[in-house]
Amino acid sequence: MKIDLSGIPLIDNHAHPFPAGRAAASEYERHFTLSRAQKDPVYVQNTLIFQMLNRKLRRFLGLPDDCAIEKVIEARNEREKQGRKKYIDDLWKDAGYLGMIADVGSPVTKNLLTKEELAEFEHDMEGHFMYKVNRLEWVAEDVIEAGTYSFEEFTALYEKGVRDMVEKNHLVGLKSIIAYKTGLEVKVRSEKKFKEYYYLYLSDPSNREYEKAFRDYCFCKGCEIAASLDIPLQIHTALGDSPLLNLHKCNPALLYDAINAYPDTKFMLIHAGYPYCEEFGFLIAHYDNVFGDFSSMVPFASIAGRTKIKSILELAPANKVMFGTDSGSIPEQFWYGAHLFREYLTEILQELVDKDYISYSFAMESAENIMYKNVKRLYKVE
Ligand SMILES: [Zn+2]
């Protein structure tokens, strides 16, 4: 039987606000790479993702297949100028993209969104699905910057800060970027050991060993808070913004200690673990409290989704993994991520049905789960 997913909508497990001003401040090629170290746009122009997205965009905008990239930029800028919200709505409708769980604590450089930018985002999201998460690390850093506290005072202020952030901003989850900071190999220590390290860290914040123990402590507390609030903790794994990210510290398998120490915390591992996709699928399969999404890999790793979504599904249950894009600068990223994901998932499910490994009804039920139902269930939102 033919697998047709065209009528099933998509909800994005992880993406970001995309204020017009920030997008306009960067050159067009920047929207196709996560790297901050890469300077020459000619390299980006020669990537598959740049070619693939702009090929489809030419058709969406009614331009000839072979027109120059400058014409594409001109045409999409003109559509934005005529009405940005309408352009977003048109793109997303075309892709069956309903909306997102938005990480509003971006970017990783902490050049955070202003009140005005967040208001603009909320306006753009009118009529779309949107719920928010925000980051543990910013709360911890704000407490450290506010004064010198005892270990007990720090712990109380940090915990109150996280709980207040969730309540006041109606967050449906928390997020950690410890992968960027000191890596995913969180060492779970006794309270006494963490306390010793806390004072060592205060005495020398530039010492990497002390900083790591301090951040591991904040992460562990974050796991406890997320469990007590019964909300998921999104955790950055996998690829990200160079040079701020050391890929070797981002393999999700490094979370072994933390996952075993906090069985009541819902670990939402993001970005498909790419390129460590099999490790990612393994963790999701082996622990009831571990979930995952395909964001960033789709669309930024171009054709990877064709094989890697399947690699993850080798082990991961279809009711624990979900669509995502990690988009956050131009609306075309969300649009193309949705198209690409639907195409890849259709191919994978079709192959499994054709080989008679799974039934048509299991394929369609899994598609609905992966495309939007798992997100609604996990975050308990409608
Ligand atoms: Zn992200």
Topology record:
Layout: E1 10-15, H1 20-25, H2 41-45, H3 48-60, H4 69-82, H5 84-95, E2 97-103, H6 115-124, E3 129-135, H7 136-146, H8 151-168, E4 171-176, H9 178-181, H10 191-203, H11 208-229, E5 233-236, H12 256-261, E6 267-270, H13 277-286, E7 290-293, E8 295-296, H14 297-300, H15 304-313, E9 321-322, H16 331-354, H17 360-379
Parallel strand pairs: 1-2, 2-3, 3-4, 4-5, 5-6, 6-7, 7-9
Helix pairs in contact: 4-5, 5-16, 7-8, 8-11, 10-11, 13-15, 15-16, 16-17
This protein binds zinc ion.
Zinc ion is lined by residues 14, 16, 103, 326.
Structure in words:
The protein is an alpha/beta fold and 382 residues long. It has a single domain, classed as Alpha-Beta Barrel (TIM Barrel). The chain contains 17 helices and nine strands. An eight-stranded parallel β-sheet has the order 1-2-3-4-5-6-7-9, sandwiched between helices. The longest helix has 24 residues, at 331-354. It is globular, with a radius of gyration of 21 Å. The mean pLDDT is 97. Bound molecules: zinc ion.
